[in-house]
Amino acid sequence: MKxxxxxxxxxxxxxxxxxxxxxMAFAWGSSENAQALFRGAFAAAVLVPIVAxxxxxxYRIWGNKxxxxxxxxxxxxxIFDVGNVLMGYDWEEYLRSYDFPxxxxxxxxxxxxxxxxxxxxxRGQHExxxxxxxxxxxxxxxxxxxxxxxxxxxxxxHLYDYAETWVKYLKNQGYHLYxxxxxxxxxxxxxxxxxxxxxxxxxxxxxxxxxxxxxEVDIYKTLLKRYSLKPExxxxxxxxxxxxxxxxxAGIHTIQFENLKQAAKALEKLGVK
Length: 273
Description:
alpha/beta, two-stranded antiparallel ribbon, 7 strands
């Protein structure tokens, strides 16, 4: 590409030199039309550079130019959580869809989603069956329902309609994009095919792959080290305040995600447009 630009620039210089030389050639001519040709060539020698300059300025102002990666930006790297940032995940709505009586709903919620084991499974240190057995131990009277709820849990994940468009836009603006998300192995295996935004990412860290979880500072340092990122040049978006606090401890700028409009405004304050 660079060689092509050099050749094009050289060709442009040669053409301009020829245009400037034409008036002199016609001025020395002895034909009847020499003077008319001289005036025409002289006008071309003056007008062509002016027109070329006007087109160049128009391109600079309105052209679809991509920011250079070496621009002095405050933020170079944008790091996304997945759940409730790029994909929706609402376990309460999902569990309500079973129409359990209220008492049963609360007990299953406590046994599964509000159980400390639920978040610990994102560390990926055991097989999925081990975690399910722990959920069942908390409410053995509902074993069959608990196993079914956990088995179908990936169904409640859905891609936000703005997700791919948003990350593609940021990628086209020259930012480096990453994913840092707590994710259990079972859930990841069954929802990864829906993560169309992953093709725009420069790097991905899922908790189950590194056996670390947010908000522990180690997982943020793993991302920074793996992809040689400067924390002061990075911003992390997560819907949970505690996870943002963990990123802050690693020196990363943070935005607690509420919705696309709010996040876009927060990014703009950091110079991300």
